[in-house]
Amino acid sequence: MMLVGGPIQLLIYHYLQMSKKQEKIKRELVKVYKEIALERSFICSGCGMSGHSVPLSHSHIIPRSRRADLVLDKRNIVYHCLSIDRIGCHDIWESKERFTLLDYFINLAYIQEVDNEYYNLIR
Hints:
By secondary structure, this protein is mainly alpha-helical.
């Protein structure tokens, strides 16, 4: 495909292409989130609190920015509570205090299985 125009038109073209790709990933991720909702209890895997008592988030064990190929892997997604009145497990997982979470060893085993370099970095 030949593009007519200057650098601004080229940037717009690339932006639209990335947006379409991101939209597709978002649609697929929503589908994965729905599957998780049907398969798992609605509790925080980091502290055990019910999602009816605290707001929960879909938390990627290995960050999306590090491993885009694992964004849709259900094993890479857990329910973690958000920080409202206290520091939530979502934020704790991203800190050096992650070892205090109930799901620390399970998450660490998954990380070691799929990304040994990241495992050595965070353990």
